[in-house]
Amino acid sequence: MYYLARQWNVDAPEIAFPRSRKDVLEYLGTARFPILVKLIYTLVSGLKFWQMEIVNNERELLDCYEALERIRTGPT
Length: 76
Known about the structure:
The chain is mainly alpha-helical. The protein contains 3 helices and 2 strands, in the order ααββα. It has one domain (18-73). The chain has helices at residues 2-7, 21-27, 58-73, and strands spanning 35-37, 53-55.
């Protein structure tokens, strides 16, 4: 929907698809809070349900990313 909205000059919130902690840190350089974090379920095998999460600052976003990364990679 985001790309369709952009194509037709309809305002839409910015999106990002970080694939690493480095990507998240780079994103923080331009991030505007609050941010809605939503998973792409096909990238997190075995995950049955994860609610969307609203994060209000850099620390919350990093904590959210780290929690999701632990789920994705399993226990260490």
